[in-house]
Amino acid sequence: MLRLLRWLTGDDLADSIAGDLHEERLRRSARGTAAGTAWYWRTALTMLTAVAAARALAGIRRLASAFNAGGHGRDLRHALRSLRRAPWYAAAVIGVIALSMALATTVFAVVDGVLFKPLPYPRAHELYSLEPGFTERIRGTPSVSLRELDVWRTAMPDVEFTGFDGNRTSGAEAVNQTGLAAAMIGPEFFDVIGVRPMMGGFTPQHFGEVGRVIPIIVSHHVWQQRFAGDPQVLGRRLAVDPRAGGTGEVVGVMPEGFVFPSVEVHAEILLPLLGMAARPTQRSLEVVMRLPAGESALAVRDRLEAVMAADAAGRNLRPDGRRYLGPFDRATLHPLGERMAEGSARVFSGAFLAAALLVLIACLNVSGLMAARSLDRAREIGLRRAIGAGTWHIARSVLIENAVLVASGAGLGLVAAPWLLRVALDVMPGNLLLLKTPVIDWRVAAFALFATTVSVLLVSIWPIRRALGLAAPVAGAAVTSTPRAASVGRRLAVAAQVAVGLVLAVGGSLLVGSVAQAWRNEPGIDPEDLSFVELRIPPDGRHVFGKPAPGVAEELAAFLRRVRSIPGVRAAGAIDAHVLDRSHIENVAFSLSDDTRHHIGLPVTGGFFEAAGLSLIAGRFPADGELDRGAPVIAVSQAAARSFWHDGDAIGRDLYTQAMLPNAKPDPSQPRRAHTVVGIVADVRYNALDVDPYPVVYGSYAALNFETAPVVAIRAPGATGRVLSEVVRLAEASAPALTAVRAQTATDILADTIRPRRFLGWLFGAFGAAALVLVGAGILGVIAMSAARRTREVGIRMALGSTREGVVTALVAGEAATVGAGLVAGVVVAAWLARFLESHLYNVTVYQPTIWFLAVGAVVATAAAGSLIPAVRASRVDPAQVLRAD
């Protein structure tokens, strides 16, 4: 305390204050030690705060005095007054900078979470992802078996290994039926990663035999979303393994911000590695290693390859003639951060470079505007130099004015960045792994400050040179001719900006057009007032893949009756399929009696057709009573009718069901059953809006084989949100009999099916729109500077009888050839680059005439606006003043 006081007030005063405080403390302590001590610290802290505030205020005043003493304050006030007299110029510059800075800051916030921020693990630099391999080149990256992992652990005890299974075709996804991404982890996982659950966790007993209750650890997000952050969540149940009859029990919650260390899966629930001891040679594990402190990755790799070679000695290198089944003999170690970010790095690096390019173009364009303004202020600058203003004073004045504009634009961009960031995260596809949730934090603010500083310097170079180049002795004289080299450079700048703008406009238009084409597709259902709730029904061991599950239909029927009783619900029914999420389950095959062709069968309950709003093409819908009692009547989609019968006339004809094997092939051991077609319905895009409908046959949920993952369709006009929440509460109230794993409106689900296209469309559409604005501003600045230099010519033209319209036409026509050359160059470059977008387009050709016409038209309109504004302004010159100046 005394040392801090001495630093703030000086030695003598500090000693005096400390002595007085000590005496008063002793006096008060005589009435009670606690009272004296409390008073002492409260008074000391109050005094320190007051002294520190006074010192800070004094420092600010000294800085302000120094600023004013150097003339900076006077220059700042002059810059503000000058900008107030030119509001359109100030608004144009601030708007251009704000637009480019908002996009750049938003992209940096996202990129920061992928490329720059460290992994959220202790000593993350020691963590490496292991990629095993073979001397011979083998396609793909093989997984690791439990046996191999045990051999490496035994031979290298100083290196920590952990294996986990997030494979969607085996392991975690085979036991997980929660609708959430899952991974199975070993008992050493948390020790190696260095992050432990914030609540609960696995015990050694959890890694034993598979039981009916499977322990699970949920992510912080799942804890908040599914369990409303319930502190008593431990012990709650989730449906996990219908085929084994198991139920998941929550035994832990991961901390907020935890990211699963896998390239393939972003796990939201963790399960113990179940049943791996029974299949120790099955390769299904991804491996992460923690290296010993101070040992290089190359040294560890060499040791590991030696262990692999020793393990391979005497073993068959080509089991069944296939090398990829033999022992490993090569190892590649990737830093975990680089490995996790590699899938997203290309996308975000390209986006960041594009954003940086936009900022650079914005700075160059603003620099042109500012240079033009310097020419407009030739009289003012000439007078200031005539009365003694030095070179540094003029340069400092221009720099301060530019800094005010750029800082204002950057500030507005930083304010708009959180809104743009929310939009970006909403449209961003889930397969882009973010190591941390992007936020506008101090790192983003530091980037914005750095970008602002660089921008101020970039935009000031050209205006300062122009301002210093004005003739000092002649007050008000303006440069009236343009050197040939400068004119050529100006025209090249305009043409280049037009070309760049056209390239970005074409790319953005093609991708936005793809999104529009996908969204324009008819989904086959009426999404208005429609919601879907996906359920899980634990079957208590009654269900085996491809076999009926008695009792489940009755449980679902009882739930649907409760849903239909909710006020506002007009219709409700269920379908056994993952609708509108790019996947489907083939549990039932329908075929003709003499044909091996088969198409997917979707079991539905009564009320589904009305709730989903399917259109009837011919015949009738199966009645609710027929569906509920399992009558052998079916409806087929138009695609199925055309596929089975060339004439498409399916009414009254029969199809036959056959159960499916786990390999999605019909099971010949199961009997076939005839079903009569009573109706033809419209095709539905169950996979996605940009995926063509597949043939579908709708049959009775009570009669057909099915999984235990029904999706309830609910139509509630005007009350979608309220009813959706009520249905979820009904499902959760009946847990563990039912569990709601997804609840969304049909419109949101349809939008999610084209999320990757929406993200690309939003990203490049935003860049294209921003480029158009910047191109317009750049052309405006360049032509404004040219018009300012031609003030004498314009004055003489008008003195000789030329009209304002004639002057405007002459100035704009003078730039038409330059804009045309830029358009030609842009068309050539865009036609070459557009080929790389072909794989990302949907129902849009690379050279779609309409889109190219719109893109070219947008660039031409932008160039015209950028040309007309300074031309009209130049036409308002007073010929008398120009002639007097001569």
Structural write-up:
The chain is built from 26 helices and 21 strands. α11 runs parallel beside α22 (755-789) and α15 packs antiparallel against α22. It has 886 residues and is of the alpha+beta class. The protein is globular, with a radius of gyration of 36 Å. The model is unreliable at 168-177, 241-245, 471-486 and 541-548 (pLDDT under 50). Strands 1, 2, 3, 4, 5, 6, 7, 8, 9 and 10 form a ten-stranded mixed beta sheet that branches. Strands 13-14-19-16-18-17 form a six-stranded mixed barrel. A hairpin with a 7-residue loop joins β13 and β14 (599-604).
Number of strands: 21
Q: Which value, in Å, is the CA radius of gyration?
A: 36 Å
% residues in beta strands: 5-15%
Low-confidence stretches: 168-177, 241-245, 471-486, 541-548
- Anisotropy-based shape: globular
Q: CA-to-CA gap between the ends?
A: 74 Å
Structural class: alpha+beta
- Summarize the amount of helix as a percent range: 40-55%
Total helical elements: 26
Mean pLDDT: 77
